[in-house]
Each structure stands twice: as structure tokens, then as C-alpha cells.
Amino acid sequence: MIIIMKPNASAKAIEQVSCLVKSKGLQVHLSAGDEVTIVGVVGDKSKLRGINIEMSEGVDKVVQVTESYKLVNKKFHPEDSRIPVKNIFIGPDTFTVMAGPCAIENRDQLLLCAEEVKKAGASILRGGAFKPRTSPYSFQGLEEEGLQYMEEAGRTTGLATICEVTSLKALSTAVKYVDMLQIGARNMQNFELLKEVGRSGLPVMLKRGLAATVDEWLNAAEYIISEGNPNIVLCERGIRTYETSTRNTLDLSAVPVIRQKSHLPIIVDPSHAAGVRAYVEPLSKAAAAAGADGLMIEVHPCPSCALSDGPQSLTFEQFRQLMAVLRPYAQLEGRQL
Ligand code: PEP
Ligand code: MN
């Protein structure tokens, strides 16, 4: 439930309402907007039975939040969130591009990727050190060695870095080296991992599960935020459908749907959605036009030699071209790229 305060409610009135709610053993989350303050209430609301909060000083109205996700719900926090990652923000006004190889393969490959994507205008370097592969015989990632290269690439280029964590062990290693954690599609409902990234203190990008509904995805985000970590970015990366001409089906409607239901930023990963290099540019333009907060793009110095996801990876030249054509799209949406 949320308690919407009157536009002129005093700090004292807000404090009194918060204290009343807390005194009944419920949690309070304040969202102070330019116009109104919202007092979000989390917990068993039957504890407030018999108390008429609407009568308290400064209260405009009380609205029940029927969705099971609360803290990521737009009703709790009507203003769009801006998520800090190292020296940048992901959210309104900006269009953030994360780029890099699917997997970190060696030091030279990653450092070269970092330099090239930085020159082209990306602000976050991606690269997997723990790879969730369909076959156990495929390349599984360099693990801590890869993270050391990631840390070096971030330090020498100034780029922020993101790496997927696939287990609690991977998480405890990754927090020492990267600026942002990625939860992959296959782990979207790994609730123990979600709780632990919620306690990690690092910003998190949460990918949508292969067959997850938007509500399941937002509930997964709720696991992270309810552990005290509000710095979450959602990532639409395509869902399983009957269509076989692309690797997954990019659900671009998730962008406006999330925008309506949540205050969290949403970025789009056309590389894993399409699985085909040629489709990355048109889907990227469409994501920008749909109002996404950014993109995640796979780039490789030699896609045909890549140890994973070569067919969807762009060459450096293709990535430069993509960035050049994207700029006007981002600007049309009032965003800086
Ligand atoms: C990735 O980003 O490299 C990845 C494995 O993505 P997803 O979890 O979307 O499949
Ligand atoms: Mn990949």
C-alpha cells in the first residue's frame, strides 16, 4: 500500500505518518518527488486494521498496491530511477551502451575490445568470465583470470565494467574486480543468487529469463531491492517463442510495459535476442525509438574466431557504424549518447 501525501504536507506530518506505520511493525520507504511525497508501506497490512491513516495530518489518499512486487513498482516511486555505475548514470536523459566480447578469451582480446568500444562511444565494457553454456563441453570462461583483465581494462580506459555471475562463488570473486554485476537469463529466478547480489552493494543488471513474464521478471528484481540494493537495471534479451529465424524473439513491447510498471531503467540486448549480426543494427534503432535507456552489444576483434556467440558479434568497424547511426535516434528521444 502507498500513502500519498498532500502537495503541501509538512516534514513533520510525513514523519508522523512514517512513525505510525513503523510502530505497527511495518517497513516504510519514502519517495520524495518534486510535487508529492509517497510513503510506501511494505509488510502485512492487516497490522494497520482499525487505523484510519487517511485521517492523519497531511495525507491525501491511501492506495492499495495489488502487484506482488512493491519496491520496484512505479506506484512506490513515480520518478524514473537513475542508477550510478562508476562515473556514469543509467536512466532518463542518457543512452548507455555496454559493449564487449561475449567471453573474455585472453588479455589482448579484452584490452583491444575495451579501447575500440571506448573510442566508438560505449561507456561500459562487457565480457563474460563465467559462461553459462548450453553444452558442458563448450568454453566456460577464464573465471578469476578474466576478471583481472577486466579490472585492468576498466582502469586503463576509464570504462565501467560489467560481468555475469552464475553462482555464489563467482559473485564473491567478481565483486573484487568489476563495477556492475550481471544476472543472466538462465539465473533470473536463482533466488539465492538474487538475494546475495542484493547484499553485494554493486549495481546489478538483471536479464529477463528465457520464458519469464514481465511480472516474474519484476518479482526477481524485487528479490534484489528487498535486500537493500536499489541499483538495478533491467535488460530485455529476447524470449523463447515458436519462431526459429532468430535465436530468440526480441520483445520490444517490454520497454513501454516496464516503463509503465516500474521506475527501473531498461536496456535492450539485441545481440542475444537476434543471434544474427545483421539484425543488431535495426533492432538497436528500434530499441532507442521505443524509449530504452541503452543497449548491450557483443563485439569481437574477429567474430569468426570467437569462442562463443561469434555469429551475433559485431566487428569493431560495424560497432563504430552502429554508434554513428544510433546517435540521432537517441537524440530524438531526448537522450545523450
Ligand atoms: C551474455 O550476456 O553473454 C549472456 C549469456 O546472456 P543471456 O543471459 O541473455 O543469455
Ligand atoms: Mn553471449
Description:
By secondary structure, the protein is an alpha/beta fold. Strand 9, helix 4 (168-174) and strand 10 (180-183) form a beta-alpha-beta unit. The chain has helices spanning 11-23, 107-120, 144-157, 168-174, 191-198, 214-225, 254-261, 270-274, 280-290, 316-332; strands at 2-5, 27-32, 37-42, 59-63, 83-85, 88-90, 96-100, 124-126, 160-164, 180-183, 204-207, 232-236, 266-268, 294-298. The protein is elongated. The longest helix is centred in the C-terminal third of the chain and has 17 residues, at 316-332. Helix 5 packs across helix 6. An eight-stranded parallel β-sheet has the order 13-12-11-10-9-8-7-14. The protein has a four-stranded antiparallel β-sheet with strand order 2-3-1-4, covered by helices on one side. Phosphoenolpyruvate (PEP) is lined by residues 102, 128, 132, 164, 184-186, 207, 237, 272.
User: What multimeric state do the chains show?
Assistant: single chain
Distance between the termini: 37 Å
How many separate helices? Answer: 10
Regions with little confidence, pLDDT below 50 for 5+ residues: none
Small-molecule binders: phosphoenolpyruvate, manganese (II) ion
Largest sheet: 8 strands, parallel
What is the N-to-C succession of helices and strands? EHEEEEEEHEHEHEHEHEHEHHEH
Describe the global form: elongated
Number of strands: 14
What's the average pLDDT?
Answer: 97
Tell me the structural class.
Answer: alpha/beta
Helix content: 25-40%
Proportion of strand residues: 15-25%
For the biggest β-sheet, the strand order reads 13-12-11-10-9-8-7-14
| Radius of gyration based on Cα positions | 21 Å
